[in-house]
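::Amino acid chain::
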Amino acid sequence: MKFLIAGLGSIGRRHLRNLQALGEKDIILFRTHSSTLPDDEIAAFPVETDLQTALAHQPDAVIIANPTALHLDIAIPAAEAGCHLFIEKPVSDSLERIGDLKAALKQGGGKVLVGFQFRFHPTLRKVAEWLRTDQIGKPLTFHAEWGEYLPGFHPWEDYRKSYAARSDLGGGVVRTLSHPIDYLRMLLGEVAALWAFTGKTSDLELDVEDTAEIGFKFALGTVGTLHLDFYRRPTQHKLEIVGSKGLIEWSNTTNAARLYRAEAEAWESSLAPDKFERNDMFLSEMSHFIQVVRGEVEPACTLEDGLRVQELVQAIYDSADRYAIAR
């Protein structure tokens, strides 16, 4: 198969390395030379700087890893050309042109996998299994939290120039750390209502929000909150779900999940495999995408899943605007 990678920043290069690790060698790069990383590891691959010229190579699949606000500039022409798409999360920075993307996919016939890699985390999948098999009864409440220091994301570059810090590139903590919005849907179902407060509360130099407090009510009745921020040190990324018969805890820091059964007053732990690393999620995700391109499986995170997160992100911003007090 032939792959085209659009965007050669940190995540684009991770996908390039993982494709190679999975045995894929026919890879073309489309880039604008905006990356702050050295070119050594990509020097051996053919590079195009014009999208139509890149698509003329007739890739089977396109991996879209450029800044969020520019995703659809690649996705729509690639879909029209009949390519399967891997779109890094979130799908875009707004709901504009989504109709154009759907029309292009209908025309070209390609499938879409949206890059929410936590769907491939082994112990988060264990949490899903515990919920599916009624281990804690009805989920009643939850709290999720992800705080991480933005200047530490990519220490080799000025964080102020990164997409996460810039509104023109689709940054902000809600979009950049939107993974919990997706995996909460995976675990608890559809969101029925939400409220949100967002804003810039730290001294970081950015023109986007660095804090979000979000309340969700799910269709099955579960209620709870999600906290996101760009300034917490050390990093914290965790989840707790309280049910009628026990509770579940999950930590991305330890890669462990714990189940408490109230009736037995006993804990059960689930640990990630030995030598599990963060990249293992991305490897599993890319392996899955290769199967999607081959027609062997359906996408684990569909375009509709990605668009539902997009709608919730927009609702979060709308809610924060609605509750803002004019001065």
Summary: The chain has nine helices and 14 strands. The two ends are 57 Å apart (CA to CA). The chain has two domains: 3-110, 118-273+309-323. Residues 118-273+309-323 form a domain with the Dihydrodipicolinate Reductase; domain 2 fold (CATH 3.30.360.10).
